[in-house]
Amino acid sequence: MRNIFQLKERPGEEAPKAVHLGYDTAFIGGTLNLPSSQHTFGLATASKTAKANLPSNIVSTFQDGAFFGSAIGFFLAERFGRKLIIMLSAVIFTIGAILQMIGRLDVLYAGRVFTGWGVGSSAMILSIYVSECSPALIRGRLVGVFEIMLQIALVFGFWVNYGVNKNISSATERQWHIPVSIQLVPAGLLVICMLPMIESPRWLVSKGKTQAAAKALSWVRNLLEEHPWIQREIGMVENAVESEIASTGLSRSWRQIGKELFSNSRLINAINYYSLTIFTSIGFTGTSNGLLATGIFGIIKMVATILYAGFLVDKLGRRNLLLIGGVGAGISMFYLAGYSQISGSFERTPPLGSGARAAVVMAYIYALFYGLSWNGVPWLFCSEVLPQRFVVVYSLPHMVLGIKYGTFLFFGVCTVLAIIFAYLFVPETKGGQLEDMDLISGPEVSIIAKKAKRNYEEVRNARVLVAEEKGGVLYKEEKV
Q1: Could you tell me the pLDDT band of residue 352, with boundaries at 50, 70 and 90?
Q2: Of 419, 421, 293, 430, nearest to 363 (Cα)?
Q3: What is the pLDDT of residues 16-64, one digit of tens each?
Q4: 164: closest CA among 154, 156, 152, 174?
Q5: Fold for the domain defined by 14-425
Q6: Domain locations in the chain?
Q7: Which of 223, 281, 368, 470 is geometrically suited to a Cys-Cys bond with 227, CB 3.0 to 4.6 A?
Q8: For the Major facilitator superfamily (MFS) profile domain, which residue ranges apply (predicted)?
């Protein structure tokens, strides 16, 4: 019984998928600031307004593609399975990366749409896929592996830009071709690594393929198909699917999927895309210095994410991390707003005094607290409770140009609202079975977090007592 929750050491696809999402998130902002890329795409001689518009458009087309990729990808994954659509998304991403290499602005836009489509589709499906294959007790850490690899790729993207800027002449297009072409590597690895992987057991059950689901679950749990734990888990999934059919008339109706898909939104972290702009606004001058500061920013986020996924998410829980992270990130943003206003760093380069050093530290503190919480928890929580859509990032360069220090105030206020939202409306999901999430987020459950959690605990504990009275010893470890 010691290996009831053991997963086989199989080659997974979390790493390459997270790598091409993380790398694409990180490299584009720095690449657009490389001298060779500024010359190729007409940024070198552009006005301030044009310089704000062009990066915004290039970054935002990626998010446009991600939005539609996540929406359509979800429907396709429900119809054809998780595995196939994840692989298809990598192919679409590869097409986009190739288009970006051509060096024409209109084709660059098209390439960004395709890479965004591939990332949006696979990132959304991946977190669902990992959750559906994971034991409840370690689900947070397994989904966290995705986030760790994403942050490692972020760091890689930041430092690739720094390296080519320092070592490759700006007179050659190789300076920007190298960071763009690296996108092809993780996309290819994703397709290769997905080949031996199983289909989601929960998706197989929803399609009436119970025997195939048992075989897949047996593989991933490292237990025989006849093992009582395998049979019990398959039974729980079947009961959940039957309940869903009873409530909707279909295993998942199109109307229900659409309602869930567009019920909430996830704000993509604009700091990742425009980190060089942010550091410039607090006094860093020169492309190399900005890229260096951005690289350190990425390392801190990576370390924070490792702490989150490896040690905290299944111990402190999702809700507590969101609250703690929101406080730390909010303090950082409000300090940066005050510093940039007092020092006038948006109009001139301030002297490198204690205030400037503290501003840099606060940017890194933001990276730490964000990495511990809002960077990874939404991926996990949404994969546990419901599918999500992406929101387009467009306005940050215009905010920096127009409202200056108000940019930091805006993000500071956002963190305050996020804390309030998490406290009121985000219930703890740590340790819960996916099949029981309707007890937390179902249509008949209160949206208030404490009431939803109380409903979950009351129903689950009642089930445990009934099972124990019937001699159901297998339920004892799940009592909340």
Answers
A1: low
A2: 293
A3: 545 555 566 667 777 877 888 888 887 777 776 766 677 667 777 887 8
A4: 174
A5: Growth Hormone; Chain: A; (1.20.1250)
A6: 14-425, 445-478
A7: 223
A8: 1-430
